[in-house]
Amino acid sequence: MEMKKEVFDTIRAQLVTLSAAGGFYSHKLRDIDFDDIRDQSDFEKLPFTWKGDLRDAYPLGLQAVPDEEIVRIHSSSGTTGTPVIIPYTQKDVEDWAIMFARCYQMAGLTNLDRVHITPGYGLWTAGIGFQAGAERLGAMAIPMGPGNTDKQLQMMRDLKSTVLCATSSYALLLAEEIERRGIRDQLCLRKGIIGSERWGEKMRRRIASELGVSLYDIYGLTEVYGPGIGISCDYECGMHYWDDYLYFEIIDPVSGKVLPDGEIGELVITTLCKEGAPLIRYRTHDLTRILSGTCPCGSAYPRIDTIIGRTDDMVKVKGVNIFPSQIDEFLHTVEGASSEYQVMIDHLNGKDIVTLFVEKDAAADSSELAERTAAGFKAKIGITVVVKPVALGELPRTEKKSRRIFDNRY
Ligand code: ZN
User: Fold this and answer.
1) CB of 358 closer than 8 Å to CB of 312
2) Which of 68, 302, 332, 359 could pair covalently with 340 via S-S, beta carbons 3.0-4.6 A apart?
3) 301 CA to middle of ligand 1, Å?
4) What is the distance in A from the centroid of ligand 1 to the CA of 12?
C-alpha cells in the first residue's frame, strides 16, 4: 500500500525526535542518517523492532517521555521469560479509548448498550480497554472479568447485557452453558465482540447461532495500545484499522521484504502518535494481508484480513507448512466434525506422526468419520494424519488463548 504523504512526514518527524531523545530508539537508530530517509522505500529499509528488543528494555527502557508524563503501565503476558512493560501517557490512554469507542461504533453500539466485559483486568490491556471504550461511547460498562460462569449468567440476565465481550473460547464456553441451561430467551444479548485470538468460521457460527447475536472480531496487542486498533464490520470481510493512528505493513516473515497488497505475510506496525512507548516497524508475528478496494460498508478506513495465524504457530511437517486456520477451514467442510480440535506432532522411530483429535457430533460414527477426515486432510493439506474423534466437550476449553497444535518433536 502506498504510504500517504502526511503519514511519511509524521513518521520522519517522529524518527528525528526519538533519536534525539536518548533511550531505546536513539540507540536502535544510531547508525541512521535521517537525510537519507526521503520516501517510503527508505522507510522500508529501517530495522524492525522485535518483541525481544522490548523484553531487553525491561522494565522501563521503552519510555520515551519524562516520568511526570507517564500515567499508567501495562504488561504483555510473557508466558516465557521477561515481560514487556509499556508505559502510557494521558494522551495514549485517551487515544486508545477513542479508537476503542470507534470499534464499538463500527459494530453498531450506542450509548444505550450494556457492555458485559469478560476479558481480564490487571497488568494486561484487555478488560480495561473494553471498559474505557464503552465509557467513552457513553454505554454502560459491566466490568465482570473472566470466570465464575454462574455469576456471569446471572448478571447478564439481571442487568440485561446487550453486548458480550470475550475471547472466542470463553464466548463458546458461555454459549454452550446458555444452551445447556436453556436460558437464551431470558437474555438481551444482541452483539458479541470477540478478541485476542484467531478463530475458525465453524466456531464463529456455533457461537453466533447458540447466542443468537452478530459477532465482530476485534484486533490489538498490548505493545500497540491493546485491543481496539481494528475491528470487523457488518460485512465480515476483514477488519478495518485506524490508519490515522497506525501504519501497517505486511512483510515476508523470512526475508523481511514488504509484500504487495493481498499477499499473506506478517503484520508490522508503526505507531504515528503514541507518546509513552512509540514503536517503529514492530513485528507482531500475526499472519494476515491487506485487503484492497472499498468495503461494502462504505467506511474509508483500510482493512486487513482476519488474523490467519501466528508466524510461530506455523509448523513444518514432512516438508509442508501447516497453520491452525487451514485446519479450521478444512474441518468446516467435514460433516459430523465440530470446530474443536487438537493436533499432536510426535517423532517416533524416525518418522513424524501427526494425530488429529477432533470433537464429533453425537450422531457421527467414529471410525467412518476418522477415515473420511484423514482422506480429506491428505487431499486438502497434503499430509497423512491419524484421526481420533472424541465426544463434544472433551477437549479443553480455556478462558485464555487456546493452543491447538502441540509439537512434541523437539
Ligand atoms: Zn466495512
Assistant:
1) no
2) 359
3) 8
4) 30
